[in-house]
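Might you be able to check the backbone structure tokens below? Thank you kindly.
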Amino acid sequence: MILESDIRIGNYVSYFDYNMEEAIFAVEGILAGYVYNTGLPRSKLPCEKVNPVMLDLDFLLRFGFIKGDPDYGEDVNTYSLKYNRLHSVHIKYENGCFQPFTDAPGGMTPYGRPLAHVHQLQNLFHALTRDELSLFE
């Protein structure tokens, strides 16, 4: 189950179809406790049947994040996505946690709580950049 207030249009979420297989889809609309997508049965599902998608390293790479290169003094556990010529979003993966980091005068500094779901990463990226984070297939 996912709360209506946790998601927005464009977020990736999932549901279990009639064969109990997880199907991931992008939210096209949210209204009155329902999530809408033209590919869904009857084009909508109640929020109670919609689930968050667990974040993993594959999703980071598919979103365009690049792994740190030790040849340049970067941490191999840190994944970065440049969103303009000066700034990047950094996510460090350690001990099963995806922790957002930011550039600071003393080096990289963690901020916020660790991310567990794809929609949390999408919402964080949107809040920081006002751009959508979409998958590269």
Q: What stands out?
A: Helices lie at 57-62, 118-129. The radius of gyration is 16 Å. The chain is about 15% helix and 35% strand. The longest strand covers residues 97-104.
